[in-house]
Amino acid sequence: MKINTFILIFFISLVIAQDKGQILYKEGKFDEARSYYEHILLNREKDDAARFGLGVSAYQQKDVETASQVFNDVMITNDKTLQSKALYNIGTLFNEQNKVEESLAFFKKAIESDPLNEDAKFNYELLKRHLQNQQQDQQQNANQDQDSEDNQDQAQENQDNNQKNMENQDQGQSESDGEKDQQKQENQKDQVEQGDEKDKDIVEKHETVEKTQDKENEPKTDKQIQAEAILNALKDQEKINQKRQISKSKSKKLEKDW
Question: Is this prediction's pTM over 0.85?
């Protein structure tokens, strides 16, 4: 972020005397001031002060490319004060481009070139503090993002665990219901089988009775008729014998009483 309190130094009153170019510049006549310094440089190419005046005039015309090129040429001058001003202005241009670290580096070089450059000192400390605060904010935001991401991950993990628990419960319930259904089916099967066995017993008994009845209703053979006649004769003879024994017993009892 650009620091708006930076001051671009345009003229160096302690290095060069008041000239027409400075007067035109202060009056806001930047085109005429630039033309004046360009005319001087046609006759004195190594006039670093005039070159510096051309740079600041070009800057006011929004010709940043020319201003930057001029300041880079001036910063190699043997005049440490003028060199410090050029380095400072380059640092200011970098700040306007949001190149904070490059700007800070040129402010530092400006101080090293001229320790009395108070503007360079002030803006160097201001930009340094701003950069530190920016880094702290970035670190804090990164930590917050990490915490937020960790919280999201934890929340997702908890959600996944809850989902798994619910699935396990549903699976367990399904298995339990399945076992109950299977047991119920087995019980029903046993009942059906038991009913089938009972029905089978009843059928077998009925068939046995029918077979017996059918056997009784079958026509008797001659041998069966003769056997039954003999058996009946024996039964009649037995009854006669029993009656005779009873009669003898009564006769003896009467004789004794007499």
Answer: no
